[in-house]
Specification:
Number of domains: 2
Distance between the termini: 37 Å
CATH superfamily of the largest domain: HUPs
Largest sheet: 6 strands, parallel
Number of helices: 10
CATH architecture of the largest domain: 3-Layer(aba) Sandwich
Strand order of the largest sheet: 1-4-3-2-5-6
Helix content: 25-40%
Structural class: alpha/beta
Shape: elongated
Oligomer: single chain
Radius of gyration: 22 Å
Number of strands: 14
Length: 311
Amino acid sequence: MRIVRGLEHLGEVPSPLWMTLGNFDGVHLGHQVILERLIENARNTRAQAGVVSFDPHPRKILKGSDSLQLITSMEHRLRLLAKEGVDLVLILPFDKAFSQITARSFLIDKLFKNLFFKGLVIGENYAFGKDRQGNVELLKSLGVEFGFCLDQVLPVKIGSEMVSSTLIRRFIQEGDFKRSSEMLGRPFSFFSSVIKGSGLGKRIGFPTANLNVEDMILPPGGVYRVEVGLGEKEKHLGVANIGTRPTVSQEGKNHFEVHLFDFDQNIYGKSLEVFLIEKIRNERRFGSLEELRQQIARDCENVRNKFLHIS
């Protein structure tokens, strides 16, 4: 899959394109149906399947940086889009100036002048551009004017609930991984890079990988049993702590730390996929580092015993 950040880096796109527009946060079941239709249409017409997305998420610019926490990092989304079979992802930088571009101008000046469109796949009630003027009616008229097809996909429901990123975020915040996973169409996970931490875990005998979860939606704070993927095939068992680390910090900032069992590799800068299996206990403040160390040892023993029992 080719990834292009900004139209200035697009260069020549030799094949015609079927395209879809959106942020695809979560790449959930509803998104997957759109992508399946996109790829089917592209293959049937000897075209490429392309996605136009935006970074940062438009809501962060329009409603403030704290207005939205994401299900998937951009790195995770790109990985999932590649697995779906997308050929090209064009990521456009989104800022205040960009938000003032009308839908018609965006399509004509930004996309049609740079890309050879065969067709566009959208979800039901899709709208974009300034004041959300880019609706189905506009797209139909532009399709006639510029000669591209418009294919509209119906939403996906599970029971009576419409699959949506908003609902999945709520389930994650509530710690309901069963329902979030149902709507995602895969086990819920975090996929993020390992960043430098304080080194405290290593000093007390339990080294941790600290994940970059800035802007990410987090489940309730606490200690979790996790499975961690490193690369395509390597899997490890471990425990994760999500929260503010009240024993050693008063800053109130959320952290995501993972201790991998029987693991001693240097993985700074690498990406991990962490699957949260179950919550073990709530996060709490301990009276000393020794008390914290003893509790972590009990947590690890608890997880190991559960793994042996399940196995």
